[in-house]
Design goal:
RNase_CAF1; 7-stranded mixed sheet; Nucleotidyltransferase, domain 5; about 725 residues; RNaseH-like_sf; 5-stranded antiparallel sheet; RNA binding; Ribosomal Protein S8, Chain: A, domain 1
């Protein structure tokens, strides 16, 4: 069912009814773009880094089509009934005076892709439903209040009032006594013109038209036909002004129904930013916000990419790839039927011409979820998934373990299930719910961002080393020269001062030095008097390259984990400090050292509550500790850049075009061999940010971890 500006109010009750009756709701979006080139995803993006990039995209691009499909299980017929809605969204408002003109970015490739899929851009602009989120609404209301206050603070003088009233009297006389259809009124000042328009709208709206001219206003009588047309336009504008797509989001929030998407991390960020409120900078705050709005969000891509048996059956986990597989055995015979409500005639099942229309994609996303969920409910549950490090606890309720380490349901019937059993199990059984509220991170070693818990960390990659503090004089050739003794190696750049070193020869992994390069025997070979001094001179090896620091993959992961703990501690300390401040603001209490009876202290009309003063030998100050931490010094005496909000940026990977079949690769590094010409190039592709670090010579590898956990690269 297509929802436009012209039929939104008419069909809103149908949408409300569908959401109210739904067991779950599937979502999909079409966007004006995915990201800018500089913000493209990289395989080493940790969850915070990926969120920062997605947040940047959500601030620049727009959802222009929103798909919503409700699914309701019918016990009587043993089928799920689907009701898909397709909304066109456009930030156009009929009230031009509200100053809510939204500017946004478009990607040429994304718009071209949508055009090839039959997207109607004329319909988007003419009939797209307007929107305003809570953040912008508050700002807009404040602007209007400020404008109204300025008018109150600067009332017109007596001469201006007199002039405006005289113009209104002339208009009244002209209407009663003249047969002329037009009247021109002089307006020597802008202030006079504004006040005359203001009075005109209050007194003669629907009777006259008014057009601003240089230093004047042209008034014209309206004919009966013009009056009727004007009334119709005003009604349409009033309805349009009352439109706000946020109404639909509010219905979803109030319903508390589970939401289902496919690879929906970007979709959820866009939804919150565009229709609800400005996104916070920190991932932890965003997760709290989203989980507070929507109790359960399910990402079908995460399910398909995480369950071991599904990985075997569905090697590619794009939404269309999943749809093709789940229509075959064993999915077909296990699942209840899924049918479209007869009132919803826009789509037919397996209609490829509707692919990439948001409403249809929402329908097939929900369809896929039902088939995947029912399959997992029936399958023999393996004790450990492919990403077993992602899940710390497994429910053993209602299962028996056999000698092969597999477990089986003992009380789950394999025949058709009634409503209570099926729907309840889908949304409560641990073998499924452990996949929920985990949003898939595309092509990342960090597989998901968890909305209601800790994010999953990847397993150790002993052949990976973080190379940091790379000076400007060091290029690709220099690095291959310095680390050439370790055989088959590759470098994946993060930014101008950081890259990953990958050593493919397992026998040489343990020989890679860690810590400051200048303190290693490896670097001494390239200094004056060393065996490789001449080679170093030819390849541009300089003393400043001794500042390069090498860190193992496991230490990098530990640094990220420690940084999260530190962030949580800082947030708790900040909250405690705020609570203490609020308590102090409400009242200060004192206690006499020699008299333990509390007495209220009065200063003027303010009463202060009593509190205890600790003596010198009291231990009540134990909660006050001195914060000490390792310090990193920025090059050229710049300010310390250890900031929790600074992030890692990682190896660049081309973002797939919208609509491409996206398949997660299970290999470790996604490496391609470099040609000789590429090896000799001065640099790999870099990002614009160039942070620099100086490592103190006395810092050990363990001390490096302590400082690094507070440092993320920007």
């Amino acid at each position: 069912m297509e929802i436009l500006k012209k039929n939104f109010h008419e069909l809103l009750p149908t949408i409300q009814e569908a959401i109210k009756d739904a067991d779950f709701i599937a979502l999909d979006t079409e966007l004006t773009g995915l990201n800018e080139h500089i913000e493209r995803i990289k395989s080493f993006d940790d969850p915070q880094s990926r969120y920062t990039k997605v947040r940047t995209a959500a601030n620049k691009f727009l959802i222009i089509q929103f798909g919503l499909c409700t699914f309701t299980y019918s016990e009587e017929k043993n089928i799920f009934i689907a009701r898909p809605f397709n909304f066109y969204i456009f930030p156009a408002n009929a009230d031009k005076r509200d100053q809510n003109d939204i500017c946004f970015m478009c990607s040429g490739s994304s718009l071209h892709f949508l055009m090839n899929c039959g997207f109607d851009f004329n319909k988007l602009i003419s009939q797209g439903i307007p929107f305003i989120n809570n953040t912008d609404e508050v700002k807009l209301s404040q602007r209007k209040a400020d404008l109204a206050q300025r008018q109150i603070d600067n009332p017109p003088d007596d001469d201006t009032k007199s002039y405006v009233e005289k113009v209104m009297e002339n208009l009244e006389t002209w209407l009663k006594n003249s047969d002329n259809n037009k009247l021109t009124v002089d307006t020597p000042t802008i202030r006079q013109k504004r006040l005359i328009f203001q009075e005109f709208r209050a007194r003669y709206k629907g009777v006259l038209s008014a057009e601003s001219k240089p230093k004047s206003i042209l008034f014209e009588r309206l004919t009966d036909a013009q009056k009727e047309k004007k009334i119709k336009i005003e009604v349409e504008e009033a309805l349009a002004a009352s439109l706000n797509f946020r109404t639909i989001i509010e219905l979803l929030i109030e319903s508390k129904k589970p939401l289902v998407g496919h690879n929906c991390f970007l979709d959820i960020c866009q939804l919150v930013q565009q229709f609800w409120m400005e996104l916070p900078e920190k991932l932890r705050e965003w997760k709290k916000l989203v989980h507070g709005l929507f109790n359960t969000i399910i990402d079908t891509k995460h399910i398909a990419a995480t369950n071991r048996k599904l990985q075997t059956l569905i090697p590619k986990n794009g939404v269309q790839d999943i749809l093709q597989i789940v229509q075959t055995e064993p999915f077909e015979s296990l699942s209840p039927k899924i049918e479209l409500d007869p009132r919803f005639t826009r789509y037919t099942f397996n209609d490829e011409s509707q692919n990439h229309e948001a409403g249809y994609d929402a329908f097939i996303t929900g369809y896929n979820f039902i088939r995947l969920a029912v399959f997992i409910l029936h399958e023999k549950e393996e004790k450990v998934d492919v990403y077993d490090y992602l899940f710390n606890e497994y429910s053993t309720e209602n299962t028996n373990e056999n000698n092969d380490g597999e477990s089986f349901e003992t009380d789950f019937p394999v025949d058709h299930l009634n409503e209570k059993t099926l729907v309840k199990r889908i949304f409560t059984l641990d073998k499924l719910t452990r996949f929920y509220n985990k949003l898939h991170l595309l092509r990342s070693d960090f597989k998901f961002a968890c909305l209601d818990g800790e994010d999953g960390y990847p397993p150790t990659k002993p052949n990976g080393f973080l190379v940091s503090n790379i000076p400007p004089s060091c290029n690709q050739v220099s690095l291959y020269t310095l680390f050439g003794d370790f055989g088959n190696i590759f470098f994946q750049w993060i930014d101008d001062t950081h890259c990953w070193l990958i050593v493919k020869d397992d026998k040489k992994v343990n020989k890679v030095p860690k810590g400051k390069l200048g303190q290693t025997k490896l670097f001494s070979l390239f200094l004056e008097g060393g065996e490789k001094y001449q080679l170093g001179q030819e390849k541009g090896i300089t003393k400043e390259m001794g500042e390069i620091f090498i860190q193992s993959w496991s230490n990098w992961i530990k640094a990220l984990q420690d940084a999260e703990v530190e962030d949580e501690k800082d947030e708790k300390d900040e909250k405690d400090e705020k609570d203490i401040c609020e308590n102090q603001c409400h009242g200060v209490t004192l206690m006499d050292e020699d008299n333990q009876d509390n007495k209220n202290i009065h200063v003027g009309e303010i009463e202060f509550e009593p509190f205890s003063i600790p003596r010198d030998d009291n231990t009540s100050w134990e909660h006050i500790t001195e914060n000490t931490s390792d310090n990193w010094t920025a090059r050229d005496n710049a300010d310390t850049w250890a900031n929790e909000e600074d992030i890692w940026t990682k190896k660049e990977i081309n973002w797939p075009n919208e609509g491409d079949d996206i398949e997660d690769k299970q290999d470790n590094w996604d490496i391609t061999l470099l040609s000789d010409s590429e090896t000799l190039s001065m640099r790999a592709k870099r990002t614009l940010s160039t942070p620099q670090l100086v490592i103190k010579e006395e810092e050990s590898d363990s001390e490096m971890n302590g400082a690094f956990k507070k440092t993320r690269i920007e």
